[in-house]
Amino acid sequence: MNPAVQAVTDRIIARSQPSRRAYLDLIERERDTWIGRPRLGCANLAHAYAGTPEDRAAMRDGAGMNIGIVTSYNDMLSAHAVYYRYPEQMKVWAREVGATAQVAGGVPAMCDGVTQGYPGMELSLFSRDTIALSTAVALSHGTFEGAALLGICDKIVPGLLMGALRFGHLPMVMVPGGPMPSGLSNKEKAAVRERFAVGEAGREELLEAEIGAYHSQGTCTFYGTANTNQMMMEVMGLHMPGAAFVNPGTKLRQALTRAAVHRLAAIGTASDNYRPLGLCVDEKAIVNAAVGLLATGGSTNHLLHVPAIARAAGIVIDWEDFDRLSAAVPLLARVYPNGSADVNAFEAAGGMPYVIGELLASGHLHRDITTVAGDDLSAYASKPVLDGDALAWAPPGASGDETILRPAAAPFSPDGGMRILQGNVGRACIKVSAVERERWIVEAPARVFDDQLDVIEAFKSGELDRDVVVVVRFQGPRANGMPELHKLTPPLGVLQNRGHKVALVTDGRMSGASGKVPCAIHVSPEALGGGNIGLIRDGDVVRVDAVAGTLDMLVDAETLAARERPAPPPAPSGMGRELFGMFRGQADEAEKGASAMLAGAML
């Protein structure tokens, strides 16, 4: 193993010993005392079997596994619309191996692309906790010996895992749906957005461009949070190998889903190959998730999601761990917004099998983890192919395009491009893998806002047409649920294109597709929690330094101590936001995962 990766792993194992031991004790106790079908009463079983008459006899016999399907299907979200027919197909495939399957429950799946910049976006992060709770409700009936988790996008995969890990004695497989085929390129789409921001393109032209980019079922084709989720499931060994980026509606995609059902039936509690989820997701798997994130230039949202998933399994990872890993992990991929290629081009160039093979060979990934598919991670360095109608796996070969994928011996960058910033403003994250090196340090007067829409208005009126550090505060989990601020990308990009030094500093989130503008995000403590980001005033010079790893306002301590903290905005209401007040009130800080569900819990 790479010594830096091993050192971080050892650090996490040592830190997590009490909580991980408690978690393992929990799932062992649950396995031994599980209120499963042999222990359920006759009336309980009759209720569970009544809705599936075609499988009732087999379920009553109890000889095979009963698989619970937890689905995030809806046809408003393109990535999840593909799941419409999955349950009925999966029931057929379960019968092929003497098992049965039932839809255990559904979880909400909202689309950040629809709510971006609007009040509904303030429900987005806490939809993850809602999904986790919904997953727990779905699995609470005790009638399943394993589960298939159908989810792919931003908060859905983390939420499914957070809930499912509380049932970690059960074997489970994540079942992805794949990315939509390529449409209008991400670069062309971004160019139209920037032209629209300065009034050079109209609404019709913008709408035509957006529909050309988001045109079909499947995930969006840029490398944002949804596709980073799928990368992460591969390096953690929770998919069938190579399942991440195969397009929907293809024979190969169907073969992979069928194989997932067959494999789940083969790793149940009654088999000789029992693989419970809670043992698959261990400290090494969590480190693999972080390494994969850094090696591929993935979404900053996973600096929230990975800690939250880890905590659900009794594992503690912090931003210092990410920072240390980033210094040691090479950047192997250039996928938009860190390059011009989309995920389909990434897959064609070798995709995750190539990345995993390179990182295993260089010692940056832990090979010796328990995966759903094999005894270690080696199987995930092979690419799925169809041999006639039979599913097989083959070596991915060399990179098909070294402008997209490079070997670990000759990476795009020797480090993973994420940094932790610390200073008198607080502690924050910054992703620099898509930022030009000369923009890693920005020192400029601040312009302070409490609402992202006010930033856009200030841009339109010309107030920001200068060197500026835009500060957007009261955007943390306790203030308004920590919405993404992706709407700010086009105007800030325009200012940067005009030659200005520009940066964003916020206690909120930026999109997983954030790119060329330096953004210090997830500032902790947040403004509502007494963080110093709330003390920044218009005109204060703020220095964002991704080279030194600092985030400071150049104001002396005595002046800061004399400043009064601003009154927070009113509590959000409307669009259902008032219903999430308990989530905001209980939310943890960003570094712990910004979860209300996990805050203060013994996990």
Automatic annotation (TrEMBL):
GO BP annotations of the record are: D-gluconate metabolic process; Entner-Doudoroff pathway through 6-phosphogluconate
Q: Which cofactor does it need?
A: [4Fe-4S] cluster
Dihydroxy-acid/6-phosphogluconate dehydratase C-terminal domain segment(s)? 404-594
* Pfam short name (any one): ILV_EDD_C
Pathway per its UniProt entry is: Carbohydrate metabolism; Entner-Doudoroff pathway
UniProt keywords (A-Z) are: 4Fe-4S, Carbohydrate metabolism, Gluconate utilization, Iron, Iron-sulfur, Lyase, Metal-binding
Sites binding [4Fe-4S] cluster sit at C153, C220
Residues of the signal sequence? none
- The residue ranges of the Dihydroxy-acid/6-phosphogluconate dehydratase N-terminal domain are 66-378
Similarity section: Belongs to the IlvD/Edd family.
Protein name, entry field: Phosphogluconate dehydratase
Q: Which organism is it from?
A: Sphingomonas palmae
